[in-house]
Amino acid sequence: MAGIVGVLALSLGARLALPLLLGRFADDALEGAATSRLTALALVYVAAALGAALLDLVVVWWSARVSWRAGNRLRERLAAHALRLEPAWHGRHSPGELIERIDGDVEAMTTFFADIAVRIAGNVALIAGMLVLATTIDPWAGLVLTVTALAGAATMVRLRVAAVDAREAEREVNAQLYGDLEERLGGLEDLRANGAGRYAVHRLLAHSARSWRAARRASLRGDGAYAAAAGVFAVGTAATIGVGVVLQQRGVVTVGAVLSLYRFADMLRRPLEQVAEQLNELQKALAGARRAAGLLATEPAIRDGRDDGGGLPAGALAVELDHVTFAYHADDGPVVRDVDLRLAPGVHLGLVGRTGAGKSTIGRLVTRAWDLGGTPHDRGAVRLGGVDVRDLTLAAVRRRVAVVTQDVELFRASVRDNVTLFGARPADDDRLRDVLAQVGLGDWLAALPDGLDTPLAGSDGLSAGEAQLLAFARAFLADPAVVVLDEPSSRLDRATERRVEAATEALLAGRTAIVIAHRLATLDRMDEIAVLEDGRVVEHGRREDLARSPTSRYARLRRAGAPAAADPLEEVAP
After folding, report:
1. Which one, of 485, 313, 301, 481, lies nearest residue 387 by Cα?
2. Which residue, 53, 174, 266, 513, could crosslink 348 as a Cys pair with Cβ 3.0–4.6 Å?
3. Are 550 and 502 in contact (CB under 8 A)?
4. What is the C-alpha to C-alpha distance for residues 131 and 535, in angstroms, rounded to an integer?
5. Does 305 reside within a domain?
6. What is the C-alpha to C-alpha distance for residues 192 and 198, in angstroms, rounded to an integer?
């Protein structure tokens, strides 16, 4: 920034010298100066003009480098902060809105600071220099230019400030437009299949109309300030020329000085007009900064603990839910009630229950996707290795606990980047090949044209089983102490399910596990079973004991659950 200011000062000095050189040239020409002197003045004028232009380029290039680096760092901060916010917050904000906040708003600020901020600062300094030089030529002329500058600036500032709220409203409407468009594109297949295309187009037109009205309102307020200021500058330029002519006729100043004053008046108008135009970008940058600050000021409901997990024992960890009662929202009732489960290290627990019984909620509490303490309903504690998960850092929980769900997110990136999550879990190629072989993808990898460097188009081109096994590979690579599997095979055919079951058995070996499943066959290798109903554990014990007991709920579920049943729990009375 110091270098930018230095180069900018040189550029401004060259620009301020141009009117003085022009006035000197006019006076010397009227006085009959030699051609050589006039030629020298002309060459100096040309050199100063070219030098100012070149220095301008250096300022723009340098400021762009600085501002884009700062903008990218701000993007990183905003993205990292958004990732720390709880799922409920993300449920209230669409992906399109987040893209607009993290990228669109930052781009508005970056564009402003990359070029416009420097130009505004340069123009302000140029105006100040012109006023000083004009006052040096003649105080009355300097006074007229000063009054013109102040009147023009006051007009612009007063009217432009009123447009900031309109610009912010415009960006908010655009964020809603992009969010709605992203959601409609994401559900394009369903919209087409159900004949809802006209509704989607109607929504787009309605949002576009709101966007147009907001943009028109903001533009009218901003351009109104520009028009009013232009009138002030026109009056000021005419007054400056008039004062100069009167002073020249009285012999106070020379013709060259009048010409210099006219050039200063003309130069005063241009930077002030540029400032008026650039204030539009300033308003966008202010609105973007306000929205970015609002995002950064949003406190995450899940606070990072201070324990980095260094004191946790190696290997499988004990998992304990100590009389846990939890609600997602204060206005809603508890989702799980007085759940008391204790798993010794290495024990595999299967969770069964109707949809909405609280199975997935228990998995989310163990992985710290949600935390206890967010509502007045919450009670109890969740512990890993005897340590409350709220005392552990999120990074420590991520290192020791892995989760695999039925919804697998694959990226448009190479196989290597998809498994290592872009290097978040570093591993060499031999380790990656071994992990993929362990989950049953060794032959699949060998058939790829570029091996680990083969690009994937997300989940396109992969079967559901291959996508699920890639998620298992991620968990293998993390080498966790606790594994949470949430319905990992509920959407797979029987043949693919057998491959996933083999990968599951390899993944769970030597680790504590919580497996949530509708298909009871998935739980045949579990050590313990817990049956949930209305958020409560109504039955818990060793799987063999419960399976042999004719009166246990689990045994009734096994008897009632036919292989073809999508959810045998729905067929059994409480």
Report:
1. 313
2. 513
3. no
4. 76
5. no
6. 10
Are 19 and 78 members of one domain? yes
Question: From residue 246, how far is each of 240, 250, 517 by CA, in Å?
Answer: 10, 6, 95
CA 293 centroid distance within chain: 12
Residues 428 and 553 in one domain: yes
Q: Are residues 329 and 468 in the same domain?
A: yes
Q: Write the pLDDT tens digit of every residue in 310-321.
A: 889 989 999 999
Q: Which helix (H) or strand (E) holds 529?
A: strand 528-533
**Distance (Å, whole) CA 197 – CA 315:** 53
Q: What CA–CA distance (Å, rounded) separates 109 from 116?
A: 10
Order of strands across the sheet with 401-405? 401-405, 482-486, 512-516, 348-353, 528-533, 536-542
Question: Are residues 348 and 264 located together in one domain of the fold?
Answer: no
Are residues 200 and 96 part of one domain?
Answer: yes
pTM, two decimals, is 0.64
CA distance 13 to 15: 5
**CATH code where residue 436 lies:** 3.40.50.300
Summarised one tens digit per residue, pLDDT across range 125-150 is 888 898 999 899 889 888 988 888 88
Do residues 274 and 409 both lie within one domain? no
User: In one letter, which amino acid is 441?
Assistant: L
**Domain annotation covers residue 58:** yes
Q: Which domain holds residue 347?
A: 319-565
| Domain termination residue (choose one: 267, 297, 327) | 297
Strands (E) in 362-510, as ranges, are 379-384, 387-388, 401-405, 482-486
Per-residue confidence (pLDDT) for residue 202, from 0 to 100: 86
526 three-state secondary structure? coil
* Residue ranges with strand state E in 211-272: none
Of 297, 328, 357, which residue is a domain's last? 297
Tell me the C-alpha distance between 15 and 21, whole Å.
Answer: 10
Identify the CATH number of the domain in which residue 246 sits.
1.20.1560.10
56: how many CB neighbours lie within 10 A of its CB?
19
The DSSP secondary-structure symbol of 251 reads T
In a domain, 472, yes or no: yes
Helices in 85-116 by DSSP H: which ranges? 87-92, 95-99, 105-111
Separation in Å, CA 423 to CA 209, 466, 557: 44, 21, 43
Number of domains in the chain: 2
Strand partners, 353: 532
Contact 147, 30 (CB under 8 A): no
Report the pLDDT value the prediction gives residue 111, as an integer from 0 to 100: 76
Residues 29 and 100 placed together within one structural domain of the fold: yes
DSSP for 266-333, please give it: HHHHHHHHHHHHHHHHHHHHHHHHHHHHHHHHSPPSS---SB-STTSPSSS--EEEEEEEE-SSTTSP
C-alpha 185, offset from chain centre: 20
Segments of the chain scoring below 50 in pLDDT? 562-574
Is there a contact between 564 and 386 (Cβ–Cβ < 8 Å)? no
203 and 288, same domain (yes or no): yes
Q: Does residue 303 form part of some domain? A: no
